[in-house]
Amino acid sequence: MCDSLVVLPPATADHSLILAKNSDREPDEAQGIQRIPGKMQTESIVQCTYITIPQVTQTYECILSKPFQMWGAEMGVNEHGVVIGNEAVFTKVKFEKHNNGLTGMDLLRLALERSKTAREAVDCITGLLTLYGQIACGGYRNKKFYYHNSFLIADGQEAFVLETAGHQWALETVKSIRSISNALSVGVHADELSSNAKPFAQSKGWWKEGSPFSFQEAYSDWLFTTAGRAKRRQACTMELAERTKKSFSVPDAIRILQTHNLGDAAFRPSKANTASICMHATGLLNPSSTTGSMVAVIRPNGRHTVWLTGTAHPCLSVYMPFFFQTTVLDDFIQPSAKPDASLWWKAEQVHRWINKDYQKRKALINEERQELQDRFIHQEKQWIRQNASLSELEQFSAMCLRDTEKLIDRWKLLID
């Protein structure tokens, strides 16, 4: 389960484009953040999660948040300001479970590495989908978890919703504010369709020629879509974003990503369900937790800021700013399958301790956490206004990472 939201200028306070996403995965599936340098490629192929495909001549610098064991990424931004978040969607198109295709996360990373604009990213994903399909397991320990994907794709000028079902797809141009969740949502007003979207649906009896064609109605699987409460989460993110239209900012995006189904005051992780934006796993009917979160600020005429937690549960995390052409993430310790020295696993120990008595224990750390978050946001705004040099931004980003690590180390003393 996941949720992604985009707000285009002029609906944002500073006329940037803001894309926010929570990545919901299996609770032990640690998620790392990485900077992938751009380069002229010398290899003829690239190894994706399950298959190899031909490599391109040049790839672009990317900042990614990705499950530790996969090649692809859940969300990310590239040096040209292309930003993408993807969602699992559940459709009527059946899987041949052979792992001989690309995952949605592979498609996301490939598009970021190869695209200068959002439109190029759309064309990259649809082209790769046509060639290789998405017959690939998206689960971690759950090797039966196969799904199709939707994508929220943007740059500083425009944004698109791209939804897929097997090799078929539908595209919608975003007008101002748009969110996606774990359900197909492109209906009769699609701007583009794959050439076989209608004939394939007609051959399966999902659509009758002569009637309005809705990609959502033709291809959605009712059971899994309903169980995931995707429509409820999508409605929640849209409503919260609309409240701050024309003044939407990073703090607004963070607050949305921290939202729980019962509200903060009454929330208990043991009562969480799939209606939460900030998701806490409880078992079979609610198996996912938010394992990473991102807020990307894309400035058409300035430096982009990629805010990433590098930790699970946004409600207990601090978003840190990262910038392109800096080396802050080059020595960042990537998490593994078991508790280690990575930021993700150190924070996870604290999070799991808090979740056992959430309201009481969160209160022990929350004021300090919020003060640090507010300071980062205030200082980043100042640096951007001052047109800070790359060196100054690098030092600032490194300081934010160090201060967050120190804070989590201090919180760990509460449970030692």
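The above is record 1. Record 2 follows with the same two-line structure.
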Amino acid sequence: MTASMQSADDLVLPFEIKPLGVRGRLVRLGSVVDDILHRHDYPPSVSALLAEAVSLTAMLGAALKFDGKFIFQTKTDGPVDMIVADYVSPGKLRGYARFSAERLAALGKTDQPSLLGNGYLAMTVDQGPDMERYQGIVPLQGDDLTAAAHSYFEKSEQIPTRIRMAAGPLFQRGAKAESWRAGAIMVQHLPREGGSSPLPSQSGDAPEGAGEELQENDDWVKARLLLDTAEAHELLDPQLSAEQLLYRLYHEDGVTAYPAHPLERYCSCSHASITEMLARFPADDQADMVEDGAITVTCEFCSTVYRVEPGELKPD
């Protein structure tokens, strides 16, 4: 391990296992994801789902090499019909989930495929107003978020990728409420210059009926099998640093950890932005929104309540 020990929480840690031709990122979320979740009254199953979505968003968004935004969004027919999370470089996170309490209670299950149902997952890279957006969409058909992310990389990026994620509450001695945590780790195989892809392939010249797939690259097989040994409690343990976890997994081949990217919760809402948004509505619609002498708007991301007086919407 070549990097010095860093803070254990709220970071994305890039790393490389050079002998295996593998690069990756590790996400550890503590107070950031706890803050995001405790601004809402989510059931535990919805909190865990959103926490994993936020950690995945941080892991993928941290790959941006420019000032921009990475947006993660699901739209499905399940009890949790929408999840939105975004990462704004260099390290700002937010997210929320929309769900039906009635359908969730009737479901009686807490696994991700049941919560999500069928629909799609969209991942969007927004490079700013002067650049085109890039968007990748994968179907959600009885999948969890990890399986959907694997499908995204296989079909859109065509990079051999392995991901593990975990989220859950931690009860600390003397605390009145649980503290939520989340973690994620990803490895990707990048062939050395002149090397072949580690994806299994089939020769077009094989005799008819042979149908035998070539073996995956041994280095990649080793890297992903080692990643699969990472357990949920290791991704969430506040006493186990990101560097220590990497060492546990890949010390045999030598792992290089690079400087971590710190993460923080943010929200772009403000009284001014809410007022500007409401001012775009026709006067009749504005009048219909007024209750008790004002228009009340609650931010979906941070649950901040804004009270806008009708007089604030009149043109100068």
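Residues 11-193+217-265 form a domain with the Hsp33 domain fold (CATH 3.55.30.10).
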